[in-house]
Amino acid sequence: MASNVSELITYNAYLAGEWKESSSGETIAIKSPWLRQTIGNVQAVTREEVDAAIESAHAAQKEWAQKSLSERGTYLERWADELEKNAEEIARTVMQEVGKGYKDAKKEVVRTADLIRYTVQEALHMHGESLRGDGFPGGPQNKIGIVERVPLGVVLAISPFNYPVNLAASKIAPALMAGNGVIFKPATQGSVSGIKMIEALDKAGLPKGLLSLTTGRGSVIGDYLVEHKGIDMISFTGGSNTGHHLSQQSVMIPLVLELGGKDPAIVCEDADLDVAVKSIMNGAFSYSGQRCTAIKRVLVNEKVADRLVKKLKDAIEKLSVGSPEEDSTVVPLIDDKSADFVQSLIDDALAKNADLVIGNKRKDNLLYPTLLDHVTEDMDVAWIEPFGPVLPVIRVQSDEEAVEIANKSEFGLQASIFTQDVDRAFAIAKKVEAGTVQVNGRTERGPDHFPFLGVKSSGMGVQGIHHSLISMSRVKVTVLNLK
Ligand code: NAP
Ligand code: G3H
Q1: pTM of the prediction?
Q2: Does residue 320 share a domain with residue 183?
Q3: Same structural domain for residues 210 and 104?
């Protein structure tokens, strides 16, 4: 596997079924977070190119919507096959572009092929319904309502950097299966991985024009895409600030937002601490904590806090730190700005007398895993999403206090509860404001057919294969009036 970049490719955008240079004449350099050098360039597409792409998507969608579900499924199955065939190459791109460990990058590609196949099967097995008209006293006996789901039109799929393949395909696959056209706007850092993924879809023979990939800075073409009259639905995954902004820009079209989190691990005094430590370590530090669902704070009962912190420290000492090529758990963050931001959270906590248990070491954008104990509510790290390898421990006196602090957060993506008492787990789970509560396990999105959602600033609407198909289609009722 090459660890340096031998040839610098300028990648074309995929506009209305053609790979093209942008008429802007501008490209954006993509710099690898761990090689710290440019690995390729992508096109900065223009507004006129966006207009043309959306127009083509509408034209192609009309025919696509007429195709049978099984025919649509055939294209997607071929896409999944192509992804698997090219899994090594795509994984290498993901590794270089977003600094994800090679094995995890490959898992992401294979997981995506599985997600696409499951999406096809789910769509094939979703049924409409028919209703009798006489549901009310004296209601009409001659009416039968036939309820189907129909496409929305053209879906705008905007994805983040951290799962450049999976989080894009989890929008594109259901959008296509539901009969829509797609405009795909990848994260700029993640565009090359997105391009490789769309090359696989192109090879699968997707009808020309149905999908376009518009690379370019969100700050430049983002608002234009979001406000475009030709967009009929937006599925967005990314930061909460961007999500808030989008929800103000988009008017009267369905919007699904999967945003940031500050997932707590609540550790009760009766928890199996080894189970808790294993899950917290994996949840907090894999891919350097650059997961929306990473465990981003520990709320531990004071009675077991010393033991838990000692076990976490021992486990952190064993973590591999370094290169994604060597599958290190902790890898360089996506860019220097992100590393500066995480460092500022650590500095703030230490200035306010948090205990540094281990870490606070840095080389450029590589931050060593950092454990902070005795974190208090006046510290930024107690509330702000770092998207990096820092774990604050907040000691609590009771389950009630843990729930109170968990819910004080503006976020509500997931939460983990560690206890050996299932009734206690359910009692806490009932009170925690989150889309999903995990009992004795790490916070995570998968398996991909589970509903996935955030509440409060963590999102709006529901993803997960079934729910994505629902959100990317609408109900249509045809009423049969019998004589
Ligand atoms: P981000 O900065 O919000 O970017 C996400 C996407 O939005 C990128 O494609 C970005 O394009 C685009 N964008 C930026 N400004 C835009 C605008 N005005 N209009 C339309 N699109 C715009 O997030 P990120 O740094 O890539 O990802 C990290 C964040 O995503 C974290 O907060 C994480 O928790 C969250 N996340 C959430 C989930 C979830 O499912 N809940 C999953 C993964 C990540 P550019 O790259 O060109 O700026
Ligand atoms: O970053 C957000 C992803 O949706 C997290 O997915 O829990 O499978 O790592 P994951």
Answers
A1: 0.97
A2: no
A3: yes
